[in-house]
Write a structure and sequence with these properties.
Structural class: mainly alpha
Largest sheet: none
Shape: globular
Strand content: under 5%
Number of helices: 7
Helix content: 55-70%
Distance between the termini: 46 Å
Low-confidence stretches: 1-5, 175-186
Number of strands: 0
């Protein structure tokens, strides 16, 4: 799918992330600061490197389920750790995490919990669109579903147990460190 005539995975990712920024603006209204539009620049870089990364990892296609499972767990754990490191400083992040943070701020629900709900909602939307456009479930595997279900849980785990990752909590999203986060900054 990365090299089809319709466009690359990176281009599709950029368009979706631009929509996420628009939703952030609507959700946060006055709490959305103009500097957050820099998410689009981050998205441009992310989308460009996504296609390159997919080409570089094209060789990784294990045949056995247990190797696929190890790859999935390793990749999901690295992704969750990266999300924690990206979101914790409360600076510019990719819109996929920015929209989750916005929903977390509005609903006052933990970031990782909102992440699971958001990712699963994207899978439901992708499934519906797949049936509409292809008449069947297309390009949506069990690994995607598992990753959507566990990434936010792993984010919550890192937020609770890794000292140098400041917890992303609904009441701590406007840049104010909690006393626990302030203690870990030393």
């Amino acid at each position: 799918m990365a090299g089809t005539k319709r466009g690359s995975f990176g281009i599709t990712t950029f368009v979706m992330n631009a929509i996420f920024v628009l939703i952030e603006v609507i959700l946060l209204r006055r709490d959305f600061h103009a500097v957050q539009y820099l998410q689009l620049a981050v998205t441009f870089w992310f989308a460009a490197t996504l296609d390159v990364s997919m080409l570089l990892l094209n060789w990784f296609s294990p045949d056995s389920w247990w190797l696929r499972g190890i790859g999935l767990l390793l990749g999901t754990t690295l992704l969750a750790f990266g999300i924690c490191m990206e979101v914790a400083p409360k600076l510019i992040m990719v819109p996929g995490e920015g929209i989750v943070r916005a929903f977390s701020m509005v609903t006052k629900v933990r970031f990782g919990t909102v992440k699971v709900c958001f990712d699963i909602s994207l899978i439901v939307i992708a499934s519906v669109l797949s049936f509409i456009f292809f008449g069947r479930l297309n390009e949506l595997g069990i690994g995607t579903i598992i990753a959507a279900a566990i990434t936010g849980l792993i984010v919550n785990f890192f937020n609770r147990h890794v000292r140098f990752v400041s917890p992303v909590e609904p009441n701590n999203q406007k840049g104010v460190q909690t006393s626990a986060a302030a203690n870990t900054a030393d």
